[in-house]
Design brief:
- With about 230 residues, the chain is of the alpha/beta class.
- The chain has one domain: Rossmann fold (3-Layer(aba) Sandwich).
- Helix content is about 45%, strand content about 15%.
- α1 crosses α8 and α3 runs parallel beside α5.
- The longest helix has 29 residues.
- InterPro entries: 3oxo_ACP_reduc, KR_dom, NAD(P)-bd_dom_sf, Sc_DH/Rdtase_CS, SDR, SDR_fam.
């Protein structure tokens, strides 16, 4: 049956691949966008997830068009990379407010509708960096590891109502960001990946779609790495 799906930050990259995977499965898919243009073929809802009023307005618009959100993929995120001693308060606050607090805001709003339905799937998009750490990414790593604790707490709170909460932790993925890395840097990253290649956005999307499928109905509070083996269970 077609479900109402929301993918935050779904206008490009991993988010767009996830939204496409759900659409191809027959779901009604809405995506939030902020600075990028909304992709064709989806219900595009302009929303800055750091603003609660905009989050509420986005959910209202989605409910009117598709019904209450049954599957939430909290994917929207930003980076402000720099070394610890050079990292400003604004660098820290911007990343935490978007990646962690923004995910909390959309999950809290989605949970209201899911509780009434007595079912729902929440998937947070974290990163292998949240478990391994990375020089120059103190803020990003903190935000992404925070999603794991948040997901597991939600899983314990809402599991009795038929709502699951899980995390997908991508490794290095072929996106616009990795494409502009210097060749030497790419070689360094590849040397650490047992499978010897970067991941594809579609591979992340497949894992997310599976977690929201009936086959994964007994999985909650889990962290699913899609990282070519670089994390090795961390």
């Amino acid at each position: 049956m077609s479900r109402s799906v929301l993918v935050t930050g779904g206008s490009r990259g991993i988010g767009l691949a996830i939204a496409t995977a759900f659409r191809e499965a027959g779901d009604q898919v809405a995506v939030t966008y902020n600075t990028s243009a909304p992709p064709e073929g989806f219900l595009g809802v302009k929303c800055d997830i750091t603003d609660q009023e905009q989050v509420d307005a986005a959910f209202d618009a989605i409910q009117e068009a598709h019904g209450p959100v049954e599957v939430l993929v909290a994917n929207a995120g930003v980076t402000r990379d720099t070394l610890l001693l050079r990292m400003s308060d604004d660098d820290w606050d911007t990343v935490i407010q978007t990646n962690l607090t923004g995910a909390f805001r959309v999950a809290r709003r989605a949970a209201k509708g899911m509780l009434r339905l007595r079912k729902g799937r929440i998937v947070f998009i974290s990163s292998v960096v949240g478990m391994l750490g990375s020089p120059g990414q103190v803020n990003y790593a903190a935000s992404k590891s925070g999603l794991i604790g948040m997901s597991r707490s939600i899983a314990r709170e809402l599991g009795s109502r038929g709502i699951t909460a899980n995390v997908v932790a991508p490794g290095f993925v072929e996106t616009d960001m990795t494409a502009v890395l210097p060749e030497e840097t790419q070689k360094q990253y590849l040397s650490q990946i047992p499978l010897g290649r970067f991941g594809l956005t579609e591979e992340i999307a497949n894992a997310v779609r599976w977690l929201a499928s009936p086959e994964a109905g007994y999985i909650t509070g889990a962290v699913i790495p899609v990282d070519g083996g670089i994390g090795m269970g961390n």
